[in-house]
Amino acid sequence: MMIVHSDLEDILLRRLIRQHQLVLGGNRKLKIYGSLTCTSGKRMKKENRVFFASEEEALHLGYRPCGHCKKEDYKKYRQLHSTLV
Prior knowledge:
- The mean pLDDT is 93.
- The longest helix is centred in the C-terminal third of the chain and has 14 residues, at 71-84.
- The chain has 4 helices and 5 strands.
- It is elongated, with a radius of gyration of 13 Å.
- Helices cover 39% and strands 19% of the residues.
- It is an alpha+beta fold.
- It has one domain (3-84): DNA Methylphosphotriester Repair Domain (3-Layer(aba) Sandwich), CATH 3.40.10.10.
């Protein structure tokens, strides 16, 4: 259920976040996901921002963890994917 930020009205977006239906944000062009409070994520353009209901969803869609707000997950991701290449 990946949702593009520009497809949502702000009031609906805030409601979905408050209800914990959207828990992660991501960059559609860079294929990176992270916490909704990440300073890197807050700087991206609205048209590139997407939202996820879970980490599993983001990974399933080919996104990788953010190196800033999800450092440990990013390290695990890098280790796993560096051995596959």
